Give the backbone structure.
Amino acid sequence: MQKELDAANERFKEYERKDVKLREDIKHLQAKQKKLADKRSKDSAKAQARAVHPQKCVQSSFATQKWRPHILCESPLYFGSGA
């Protein structure tokens, strides 16, 4: 009878360890999911702001030349980044 009780206690301890690990994993994944959702909302807000407000345009040095006026816009296509 004592051996059965010890075996049951051991199984219960193992179960508790797994339970704690799974709860910590769930907590970690929920925090990660919240962080990604916040990042997604920030990124969508930035995209909406870019769509609403036209990009700032800057005249290049070529604009002063009569034969070839240019206006370059600040965009990833010209400068290589979205900043």
Notes: Helices lie at 2-52, 76-79. Residues 1-52 form one domain. The two ends are 71 Å apart (CA to CA).
